[in-house]
Write a structure and sequence with these properties.
The complex is a heterodimer. Helix content of chain A is 0%, strand content 45%. The radius of gyration of chain A is 13 Å and the shape is globular. By secondary structure, chain A is an all-beta fold. In chain A, strands 2, 4, 5, 6, 9, 10 and 11 form a seven-stranded mixed β-sheet that branches. Chain A is built from no helices and eleven strands. Chain B is 0% helix and 57% strand. By secondary structure, chain B is mostly beta strands. Chain B has no helices and eleven strands. In chain B, the strands form two sheets. In chain B, strands 2, 4, 5, 9, 10 and 11 form a six-stranded mixed β-sheet that branches. Chain B has a five-stranded antiparallel β-sheet with strand order 1-3-8-7-6, with no helix packed on it. The chains are: A mainly beta, B mainly beta.
């Protein structure tokens, strides 16, 4: 089934540890996004990529990094996790920059202690 | 700053009709989206409006007035499975999506 796969689905992490959330899509979409979702707040964009080889900063990029080595994969790395990064993280993709609807992965629930 | 406003929570009865409002103030406008999100799940696309007027899709309709910075999602013949959060999002002049916090809809029998 075509779509977006995120891993892990859930993780508890000690503060200061490094963590990479994986995201893979098989729809050949150009644009990919990482959002965090916190209670009472709208989805907030962390980083995005309009096409393979390019990335950009979103609304809340500090403490996070991304790479886009190919069309399918868009990993999100927390270099040194802090408790404020406890959240649900969603990866999404769209078939063209700024036009199409977003397709979301199932989310990764991260708890930083 | 950019802002999307939606009610935090609404309650409706099975079989009834409910209207979820969304008002926005953004730097430019390039379309408005509605997504549905069941608890613990990913958001899924419901509708897209870029021109003024009503878009109907089965039991769901979405309306847009760009001059008023206003949209609503209308759900008819409510079913228990419609219990979910409904997210409004606006694409601004930079083609970035600005998201509302979502409206939690509770359906009662």
């Amino acid at each position: 089934i075509a779509g977006i796969t995120q891993a892990p689905t859930s993780q508890i992490l000690a503060a200061g540890r490094r963590m990479t959330l994986r995201c893979t899509q098989d729809m050949r979409h150009n644009a990919m996004y990482w959002y965090r979702q916190d209670l009472g707040l709208g989805l907030r964009l962390i980083h995005y990529s309009n096409t393979a080889g390019t990335t950009g900063k979103g609304e809340v990029p500090d403490g996070y990094s991304v790479s886009r080595a190919n069309t399918d994969d868009f990993p999100l790395t927390l270099a040194s996790a802090v408790p404020s990064q406890t959240s649900v993280y969603f990866c999404a993709s769209s078939d063209s920059t700024g036009v199409g609807e977003l397709f979301f992965g199932e989310g990764s629930r991260l708890t930083v202690l | 700053g950019q802002n999307i406003d939606q009610p935090t929570e609404m309650t409706a009865t099975e079989g009834a009709i409910v209207q979820i409002n969304c008002t926005y103030q953004t730097s430019g406008f390039n379309g408005l989206f509605w997504y549905q999100q069941h608890a613990g799940e990913a958001p899924t696309f419901l509708s897209y409006n870029v021109l003024d007027g009503l878009e109907e899709k089965g039991r769901f309709s979405s309306f847009l007035s760009r001059s008023k910075g206003y949209s609503y999602l209308l759900l008819k013949e409510l079913q228990m499975k419609d219990s979910a959060s409904y997210l409004c999002a606006v694409r601004d002049s930079n083609y970035q999506l600005i998201w509302g916090a979502g409206t939690k809809l509770i359906i009662k029998p």
